[in-house]
């Protein structure tokens, strides 16, 4: 360093003299390489440039310069590059990359500079150079990287470092990779696409990566300005072993958005689940604020919301029914899933159309280096996933499939009425990923699932999901990147009915939606990171039809007219770093919905209940004619304040609109539930949510603790009238009510992320209530007072734990306790005109018994040798160890003049399972 300073002093006078005599040149450049331009300047002036050839390759210039100095030409030529220049003397010019050669020492370089500073001429320039020590790098550091381009003020301020982490062997992005800066509290974690962003002060830093399954690397960085550094890491199988990956570091404390859960698929393989099926959606239910109405029920209730208020996405395409086999299994293949992020508090502005939550599921990118796969064989299901390189290091194909052979379970049940039943499902997924360059890549995903079941001998039910998505990602420069996305989702449900009588029929409904969206990101500076975009979605809903089967059927064909709607939105969001303690995340989304024809819409008399008797007009709307429009602003605000480096306070507010509804008169979710679009007579659902939470980490992030409270108020929530007929009803608005909803609660989560014993404890206290009130009795439920929703379960506790005996052997446990859900009981009977009627209580006045369950498993990992054909994993588990006869539902039957109560259970005995997995 001393020799370098001496060199600067010797050359300073020569530099000033050279600047005064800088020659002038004239250049006409058309797609001319930088190397050619420097050669032309050498010919015109006699100057000689010194540089490394690789620095100037690939840069082309188109410009005209007339009689300007070489200094001015170089300033313009090098402005958009990482290069600087320095006049060594009258004839020699040195080109440097990233850094600057200084011709004077900065103020304050020597210990006592007061006198020097006082005598300095006023026109002397102020410099803020970046100093670094070349021998500071530890032995573990593999290399030194210079980021950005140094300017005369580079030594001040903070800069943004962005990049992507990828697997060196497969080319796949590495998510949940910890990236920390040694000696500081600065750190981050990569997202699902392996991307990261750090805000660092100028100067020298040691960047360290940490993850399970990849090598730990320390890199020496010298930061001059904003820039990019990509990490290409080798696999390290010797690091495998923990259930919960220590990759989030302090993200739960430092991130601005509360109420967010990230689930890594590698964390769930040891958790004991029913019939040995690894299930990412079932793991989600063990987290605070997320529940289901009962064992074997489809759909999720998030923070007191209905099941239709969740947006479930697979690679940006909507999955309408996320359940297989009566809700016992999810429709998401765990072997092909990369990550899942659940937003239950403040939902980012890029998402819309649902009130309660977003389940953002991203499938894995295929291995582009070598053929790989994973296989699972269990007593009920088998699963296989294959990764096939198409073009080495550029593209790959991911194929996954699951199927069941579950009929044997139904045939072995004690219930004689179910022995002749059948149930089966399968799903397949394919994803193609192609890397055009370091800045551009393309991904396409297709998914299909189908379920068939027959609980009675005369009806066969089936439903299927079909979705497709294409995504083009492009990075324009270090500050701008974006994604163009096209998706299509299709869901349909059918019933095939056969009997000895002449009433055979087929019936069903379907929904189809297509969406185009553009998501952009702009990294303005260290303090502001903008997300913005636009989207439009077209709904096509066929509410239902019935058709006769066979020439002798007496069923009359009938079909409810198709519904169509167009939902569009534009959004802008900003992550604003106010200071080191305060971080704000603000977003504004404006959504607009148009109900479209062709359709007839009935007009009802204002102020009276909707019925055939109150119809005053019928309006016909032509094809694609706008029948009604709705919309408004959706605000997404959240803030994080660091009370301590490992303790933060977070608060948030968001409001949302939802234009599609689920119609059901069942207590639990059923595949027969139908869908209804907003129109002139059905208004969109709306909600406002407020939340406040404390987040704390202990013992170097080994323990994570959070407590968060929320309050949500909703409007235009759809519910049914007493005795409503919803399926195949053309005038559905006469059978439903729209009212108010409110939910509130507190969520507690304690997580231990490493060590022999790891896992989490989650507890939620919550209330969810509805209010259906109106001027007339038929518009009221429970006299217009608030009553518990079908999914109201005040106490919900989950414990997930794993204890490692060795690197290969471990025990796991899963304990669940929930308050019984509400139910309406008959309380008596009466006679009217000689006919007996049953008198029921207020809606949802009573509850079924509380639910609790304990599951245990023993897990055996294969050895962790790197050079072996496959890595195996055995899971031996027992579901419902205590044999608890948890009721799924309670129903009432009149027998010999008496009303008798019965309860049904899904699994009332312990269910042992052994599953074998291997990955190659």
TrEMBL record:
Protein's name according to its UniProt entry: TonB-dependent receptor
* Species of provenance: Salinimicrobium tongyeongense
Q: Which residues form the TonB-dependent receptor-like beta-barrel domain?
A: 431-881
Family, as annotated: Belongs to the TonB-dependent receptor family.
List the keywords (alphabetical).
Cell outer membrane, Membrane, Receptor, Signal, TonB box, Transmembrane, Transmembrane beta strand, Transport
* Top-level taxon of the source organism: Bacteria
Membrane topology of this protein: Multi-pass membrane protein
Record keyword Transmembrane present: yes
- PROSITE patterns, per database record: TONB_DEPENDENT_REC_3 (PS52016)
InterPro entries found in the cross-reference section: Beta-barrel_TonB (IPR000531), Beta-barrel_TonB_sf (IPR036942), CarboxyPept-like_regulatory (IPR008969), Plug_dom (IPR012910), Plug_dom_sf (IPR037066), TonB-dep_rcpt-like (IPR039426)
Start and end of every TonB-dependent receptor plug domain? Answer: 277-354
Subcellular location(s) per record: Cell outer membrane
